[in-house]
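Standup notes
- DV: blocked on the single-chain target, sequence here:
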Amino acid sequence: MSALSSAAALAPETSTPLVLALPKGRILGECAPLLAAAGIVPAMDCLDEDSRRLRFPTDDPMLDVVRVRPFDVATFVAFGAAQIGICGADVLMEFDYPEIYAPLDLQIGACRVSVAEPVTSAASDDPARWSQVRVATKYPNIARRHFAAHGVHADIVHLNGAMELAPGLGLSRLIVDLVQTGSTLRANGLQEVQVIADITSRLIVNRTALKTRPEEVGAWIERFRLALAAGG
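- DV (later): unblocked, structure below
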């Protein structure tokens, strides 16, 4: 019996399937090889962004998959609607749910949370001289902590998208946003001036589920661990 098969055999029979929460969008495609390596075969339309379904069975009757917005994965797992999830470290930093345990860095979804400002002002601006700035972001907690650590008061404008428009329209001086290639920033006349954190996606689990269903949840952690080892 392979090590992966041995890990799968750890899960006992119960009446309620575990739920794995996956993020919609960019990371979903990167999840596919990892899921396959962990021996998870979801319904065919699970990885199809055009599918209207949100919950999907897998080849394992004791595991279902739900597909939700990246920011919502952590909430689903923290409140126990899903017992396991794949979530960007940026979301974990923003919400800092004590109910979540993140045992594995899955090494996918690489990007960074950065501060950006217009190219026209970046050349002459000195961040060391900032004392108060207005910042547009969907990461208010990350932004406040970052600027506070540098002795700067951040006046937050909370946006859920199109942050790049904010400086040009006078809504904010800076933005804090997720950056992968920087092409969207450049297309909108912005440039990175500070990197707050490098980001990858993590396997997360609900702490209560890990205590109440340790064999099952632990078996899936081990399957993902073995999948990462095999890929390395």
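- Follow-up: The radius of gyration is 20 Å.
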